[in-house]
């Protein structure tokens, strides 16, 4: 197995390293190396004005990338990092246009995965210690939650010096909560495991519901989409793939993709189920959406976008 020292050296030498996080796998490059970061866009077929998240492993690195960080952002960072939360902050000049998509803000996250944290630690010893990474999938497609997913989707676009690290299955399974921290009150741009209530309780502030012109890729109408058509809350027909919590039975001749026992399991296995349907060449996936707030709300956000294909 390649060591994390080797992987850090690859990053430092300007190569791409796909790495596990607790949310989904990331496609990483040295956040200070423009050429390396541009390759991420090529590999993903991602539009160049689309910002990337900078992954670090300690709160002291925040000041390298951001300025005018509000108290409430520190409160969130201290409480939920390492964890499934990305903070949008005013950028320092280190965060170049090719990271921020030309915006004056930068997205930053400390992921909660031993391998990711150690990789960043090794990278700190020899280089910038900051990894720019989007999810390791083609633009608009389903995020990968295992080494196998990344390999299947991207290995033909990677060169011999690039790497994919194997850190098992992502435990959360959907992307981080994105929180805009550039205004006097926090605003959720993408829902996730860190919920509105958690943010309000930690910051003592009521979330902002103001309209923002910040671009978030997940806010495109269609995203996270498998090849199969995703249909929500209809009766599945014979031959359809079916995703629903365990208490719902599988109708005759319907292909049950997953039967999660709770919303945590639902999030963890959703993208796996999408990929399974595509492997089986199914033309339709019917999903019975989970009810409620919090993680269920984040799952419904992804399902809505997946269903817009
Ligand atoms: O859980 C995650 O966030 C994963 C793992 C790998 O960390 N990453 C991820 O990256 O989902 P990506 O690029 O697929 O989605 C990140 C989102 C994008 O929608 C992007 O637009 C938004 O973060 N983003 C990044 N920087 C931003 C900024 N400065 N302003 C607004 N949105 C930003
Ligand atoms: Mg993505």
List the helices and strands and how they pair.
Elements: H1 4-12, E1 17-19, E2 26-30, H2 34-44, E3 53-55, H3 62-65, E4 66-67, H4 71-80, E5 85-91, H5 97-100, E6 105-109, H6 114-126, E7 131-133, H7 147-154, E8 163-164, E9 177-180, E10 187-190, H8 196-203, E11 229-232, E12 241-243, E13 255-258, H9 263-279, E14 284-287, H10 295-306
Parallel strand pairs: 1-8, 3-6, 5-9, 11-14, 12-13, 12-14
Antiparallel strand pairs: 1-2, 2-7, 3-7, 4-5, 5-6, 9-10
How many strands? 14
Q: In percent terms, what proportion of residues is strand?
A: 15-25%
Order of helices and strands: HEEHEHEHEHEHEHEEEHEEEHEH
From the alpha carbons, calculate the radius of gyration and give it in angstroms.
Answer: 19 Å
Helical segment count: 10
Q: Largest sheet at a glance? A: 10 strands, mixed
Give the rounded overall mean pLDDT: 95
Proportion of residues in helical segments: 25-40%
Q: Span from first to last CA? A: 38 Å
In this entry the ligands are:
threonylcarbamoyladenylate, magnesium ion
What structural class results from the helix and strand content? alpha/beta
List unreliable stretches of 5+ residues. none
Estimate the global geometry from the Cα principal axes.
globular
Description of the molecule:
- It is a single chain.
- The protein has 309 residues and is α/β, with parallel strands linked by helices.
- It has helices at 4-12, 34-44, 62-65, 71-80, 97-100, 114-126, 147-154, 196-203, 263-279, 295-306; strands at residues 17-19, 26-30, 53-55, 66-67, 85-91, 105-109, 131-133, 163-164, 177-180, 187-190, 229-232, 241-243, 255-258, 284-287.
- Strands 1, 2, 3, 4, 5, 6, 7, 8, 9 and 10 form a 10-stranded mixed β-sheet that branches. A 4-stranded parallel β-sheet has the order 11-14-12-13.
- Strand 9 (177-180) and strand 10 (187-190) form a beta hairpin.
- The model has no long low-confidence stretch (mean pLDDT 95).
- Threonylcarbamoyladenylate (TXA) binds next to strand 5 and strand 6.
């Amino acid at each position: 197995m390649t060591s994390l020292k080797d992987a850090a050296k690859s990053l430092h030498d300007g190569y791409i390293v796909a790495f596990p996080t607790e949310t989904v796998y990331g496609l990483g490059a040295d956040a200070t190396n423009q050429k390396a970061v541009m390759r991420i866009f090529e590999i993903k077929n991602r539009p160049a004005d689309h910002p990337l998240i900078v992954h670090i492993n300690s709160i002291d690195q925040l000041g390298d990338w951001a300025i005018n960080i509000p108290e409430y952002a520190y409160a969130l960072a201290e409480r939920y990092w390492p964890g499934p939360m990305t903070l949008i902050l005013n950028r320092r000049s280190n965060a170049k246009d090719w990271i921020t998509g030309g915006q004056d803000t930068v997205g930053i996250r400390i992921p909660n995965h031993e391998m990711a944290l150690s990789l960043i630690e090794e990278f700190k010893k020899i280089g910038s210690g900051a990894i720019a990474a989007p999810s390791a999938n083609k633009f608009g497609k389903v995020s990968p939650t295992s080494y196998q997913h990344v390999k299947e989707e991207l290995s033909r676009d990677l060169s011999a010096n690039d790497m994919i690290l194997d850190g098992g299955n992502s435990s959360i399974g959907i992307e981080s909560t994105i929180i805009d921290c550039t205004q006097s009150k926090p605003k959720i741009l993408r829902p996730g495991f860190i919920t509105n209530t958690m943010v309000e309780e930690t910051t003592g502030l009521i979330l902002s519901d103001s309209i923002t012109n910040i671009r978030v890729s997940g806010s495109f109408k269609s995203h996270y989409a498998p090849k199969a058509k995703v249909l929500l809350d209809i009766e599945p027909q014979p031959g359809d793939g079916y995703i629903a919590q365990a208490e719902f039975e599988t109708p005759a001749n319907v292909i049950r993709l997953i039967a999660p026992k709770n919303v945590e399991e639902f999030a963890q296995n959703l993208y796996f189920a999408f990929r399974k349907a595509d492997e089986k060449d199914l033309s339709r996936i019917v999903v019975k959406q989970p009810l409620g707030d919090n993680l269920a709300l984040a799952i419904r956000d992804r399902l809505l976008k997946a269903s817009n294909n």
